Amino acid sequence: MAKRNSNRVKPTETELKEKLVQLNRVAKVTKGGRTFSFAAIVVVGDGNGTVGHGLGKARDVSEAIAKAVDDAKKNLIKVPIYKGTIPHAIKGKYKAGKVLIKPASDGTGVIAGGAMRAVLESAGVQNVLAKSQGSPNPHNVVKATISALANLRDPQMVARTRNISLDKLFNG
């Protein structure tokens, strides 16, 4: 089970953009025939370091997406972004979904696959190299990516932990 994140953010309605990662039609077989419903995975973010994910299920597509967006707004985290990329390389894991995310130089863009791309772009990361190494299941990939981003440490936190100045941290 993923550990609880201490960098949770209070949901604010300021410019949260939503991205649909996956929409799945599921069928329940009854004696009257098949009953269809929909499951939606959505990622929301402000493009400035705040991102969250949610899952919604309903009989109607738009209702499932609306439920997923509401769920995502309850699961927001803050991501440290340094010069348009992440501060350091990190691995994330959720069940069988494994991801590797590395910082990239300016102008690289977001090099990532489907579900990871949605999370990273919603968070506001402009330059990053990312690879999904485990299960391609969008549920697990999104949760592994969020887990990795939640465990990132910003340069100020690293300098404080090591009891050194930011200058010494970067210039060694």
Question: How does this structure look, described?
Answer:
The protein has 172 residues and is an alpha+beta fold. The chain contains 5 helices and 8 strands. The strands form 2 sheets. It has a 4-stranded antiparallel sheet with strand order 1-2-3-4. Helix 2 runs parallel beside helix 3. It is elongated and about 70 Å long. The termini are far apart.
What's this entry about, in short?
The chain has 172 residues and is α+β, with helices and mostly antiparallel strands. The protein is built from 5 helices and 8 strands, in the order βββαββββαβααα. The protein is elongated and about 70 Å long.
Index terms:
172 residues; alpha+beta; 4-stranded mixed β-sheet; 8 strands; 33% strand
Strand order in the sheet with the most strands = 1-2-3-4
Order of helices and strands: EEEHEEEEHEHHH
| Beta-strand segment tally | 8
Structural class: alpha+beta
Query: What general form does the structure show?
Result: elongated
In percent terms, what proportion of residues is strand? 25-35%
The major sheet is characterized as: 4 strands, antiparallel
Percentage of residues assigned to helices: 25-40%
Q: Gap between N and C termini, in Å? A: 37 Å
Q: Please compute the radius of gyration using only Cα atoms.
A: 18 Å
Work out the helix count: 5
The pLDDT mean sits at 90
> Uncertain segments of ≥5 residues (pLDDT<50)?
none
